[in-house]
Amino acid sequence: MDMEQIVSLCKRRGFVFQSSEIYGGLNGFWDYGPLGVELKRNIKNAWWQDMVLAHDDLNVLPGAPGQYSMTGIDSTIIMHPQIWKCSGHYDLFIDKMVDCKECKGRFREDHIPGTPCPIKPSKMVGQHDKCSLTEPRDFNLMFKTTLGALGTEDDAAFLRPETAQGIFVNFKNVIDSTRYRLPLGIAQVGKSFRNEITPRNFTFRSREFEQMEIEFFCHPNESADWYRYWRDRRMKWYQDYGVGSERLRLREHASDELSHYSIGTADIEYAFPFLSEGEYGELEGIAHRGDFDLRSHMEGKLDEKTRPLQVQLGPDGKPKWRGSGKDLSYRDDLTNEKYVPHVIEPSAGADRATLAIICEAYHEDEAPDEEGKGEKRTVLRFHPRLAPIKAAILPLVKKDGMPEMAKDIYLALKKHFNVFYDEKSSVGRRYRRQDEAGTPYCITIDGQSLQDGTVTIRDRDTLQQERIKAADCMQVVRDKVS
Ligand code: ATP
User: Fold this and answer.
1) 3-93+141-357 under CATH 3.30.930.10, yes or no
2) pTM score, whole prediction
3) Which of 141, 164, 421, 425 has the fewest CB atoms below 10 angstroms from its CB?
4) Whose CA is nearest to atom 23 of ligand 1?
């Protein structure tokens, strides 16, 4: 599998298109087409269902230090600008940018070693005699916008670069408006924006993307155990959806990579086909964040270099960035203990998960054509729960009452699943098209169907065909895709 094949399949079959393509495209922005929107939505729904809605809060899950609750919110993309000052994004959310005076290229300093120089013959950036790189400069990745009509610097606001802060600033609202006790995870799925210096590698590094984040609030004494639980639980989630190969790995950060306040951070990484041998790209980060975020929003931005953490002071000796002054601590109503919770943050990207799932599903193999001869096919082996189309309904031929029977089945299933009706071209070609879209099941209505009310159901991966009663289609598909 190489990246070009994946990108071309994504375009050809309507998974991903370049944004604004008819105007030449816009670097770092991608649109999801008819199949892509379903795939990505299924991934986000599976995450929400598994993490939040179907979470068992009455029992202790395997590996968990205890019972816990999960709930969700949906906060705005533009928030009070002070939030980004207290979170550290205003001062610290920067990449080092380097320009080449010769080729006019712009590069992220930490990406230079793996970046090809546009000057021919091909070499890496900085390796040509002609290369003339500037000193690295800070570049803040937050997109700036203005609120209201005056447009002064005081009206500046930012598009959120992560969904996490919307959860921190709503922590008290959630606790006060519900009966949840800690430990509690608050989840959010939504768009984030980063003005990446060099967006690249298809959807992997985009300027507009979606995140699926949990902020898990717990007692400080238990936070190390909860960190380990979430790290392993999130790794298992990808494996459960078929990203289980040697391309997936969990990388624990070394202690010199950690923030002072953090007990641990781990990345779940995937060996994307656009990376060199042995390189991995981050799918999700799981970080132990201590009480850094809640305290920063209470007292003012904390100085990450202090231990224990202290509010960062400006030249006048006052907090450099003032917090909200609101009490974001938690009182346990059973023990009456009051504390600022520690936070574990599993932060995943929906677009990177979608891309990894497409890469992992991509296979080329052989399947028999109508005459039984082996024919090369491209197949996306999506987990049935994630597949954009769950079943295709195909009349064998366009006559003898087969389309009528097929349409009845199609309309009955369509109320419950995303199914596809296709009567054009030979059935073999229709199977190939569904294989390429990752449809796990094809239901075919043939001559026998009209006589005894049965249909065949073909499995995309085993190619086995089973005969079932037409009336059972709904239940059979439900059992297979849920
Ligand atoms: P990277 O080092 O690759 O820039 P990061 O460490 O800055 O990523 P986080 O801030 O931890 O990323 O964001 C959490 C998740 O959000 C990432 O694991 C990734 O899945 C997703 N994400 C972050 N930046 C982008 C982006 N530019 N495009 C697509 N997804 C992204």
Assistant:
1) yes
2) 0.94
3) 425
4) 349
